[in-house]
Design brief:
This protein has 110 residues and is α+β, with helices and mostly antiparallel strands. Helix content is 18%, strand content 50%.
Length: 110
């Protein structure tokens, strides 16, 4: 998954985008790549923002998407260790986008 994300110049990828039927996402956060197994967004900020988003599943398409600015995510790493961590900005947006994919949503526009 990491190789596919990098090869396609993405900053996030959900397992089901590459035919893996598991609840796993990979996210690039300022060059550091995180693997999140069974990610669950457990908290959202009240503040939202709209930004054009692209998707590796729909090349060269950008749509305005509203997202929460900050999210708290519960997940396990590749060793099975549990984590609960807050993310903001672009990383929060990417996590929400990829979790949407795991839930069967490609790009949910305004």
């Amino acid at each position: 998954m990491i190789d596919a994300m990098i090869k396609n110049e993405g900053i996030g990828l959900a397992a089901n985008q590459v035919g893996i039927l598991k609840r796993i996402i990979v996210v690039s956060d300022e060059g550091k790549i995180s693997v999140m197994i069974n990610p669950e967004i457990v908290e959202f900020s009240e503040k939202t923002c709209i930004m054009d988003e692209g998707c590796l599943s729909i090349p060269e398409t950008y749509l305005p998407i509203i997202r929460y600015e900050t999210v708290k995510v519960k997940y396990r790493d590749m060793k099975g260790k549990p984590h609960i961590q807050s993310y903001s900005g672009l990383t929060a947006r990417v996590i929400q986008h990829e979790v949407d994919h795991l839930d069967g949503i490609t790009m949910d526009t305004l």
